[in-house]
Amino acid sequence: MRGWAAAIFLVLGTMWATDGFTQENAEPTFAGCRGVTVTIADLQWPSASILAQIHRQILRDEFDCDAQVVQSDLANVAATIDAAQEPNIVPEFWVTRVAAQWNAIGEAQRAFMAAQTFDQTVLEGWFVPQKVITDFPQLQQAANLPNMPELYAREKIRFITCPEKWACHVINDNLIAAFGVQNAFDVVVPQSRFEMDQLIGQVISGREPAVFYYWQPNAVLHQFEFAALEMGEFLADAYPCLAETDCSAPQISDFPSEQIGLIAVSDVRGDMPELLGYLRRATIPIAVMNELLAVQERGNLNAEAVATHFIATMPQVWQGWVSGSN
Fold this sequence. Notes:
Layout lengths: L1 H24 L12 E5 L3 H18 L3 E5 L5 H8 L4 E6 L4 H9 L3 E6 L7 E6 H6 L12 H4 L5 E4 L6 H12 L6 E4 L4 H13 L4 E6 L4 H4 L2 E3 L10 H4 L17 E6 L1 H5 L4 H6 L4 H14 L3 H11 L1 H9 L3
């Protein structure tokens, strides 16, 4: 009898222990967003992945919403938004790269742009080491680049362009002609992105006055001290010629602006209205994203770990998204 009673006690004790274990390890429940799961697109390049994880963590922690990251890509995300209102949020949607798809879902009122993703829209440009501007402030203006070799008592100045098969290679060639610096520049053509970064690193380590093309967001522009050159106004009518290998009369122009938006599907207005103010405020400074990419590269971190780092160390950026007035 004692053995039988002990066996019952053991079984019941095991059941209670198991029940307690299940409770402690259950998925958290979320009361926000009317119980609807918010899906956030990861478009699978570094900055887009980091932003998806940032928004996931903030929506869960600050709004008590069940938020999940889903993988997609720029070519197909507009189609799934149109068909099923999924994913609900796309943190880094490059509108100008898929203009036809965006216009279709926008006109059909299937989605809206809540905010600009970054605080800058011109993301390509020519750069120099910050020391160049410190030495000769006039070189901030790209129009003064023909004087750069004389200022540094050099025969030519190295210009690091893009790999030959990249579209920016042709644009840079034509801009060099437009600014009249063919004889002032020794144009260096890297074979790859890796070699391009190596060459830029050599410029910095050797304290060499040089000019190079680059783009943002990017870790390199945080790792070293660079200054963007002022290229003048963007000339929409002249720019198509700059992209042609046989452009006969290239004109000076800045690089075009990119429309990059934090996109939300229309259902967000009805299902998750408490998120609207947050989404409208959630523009991240491009310099911060450059820094986050450098953190990721330096620590070999995944996007979720970088997002955790951002939330822990940069509350001055994201807390305004949560508690702003508009």
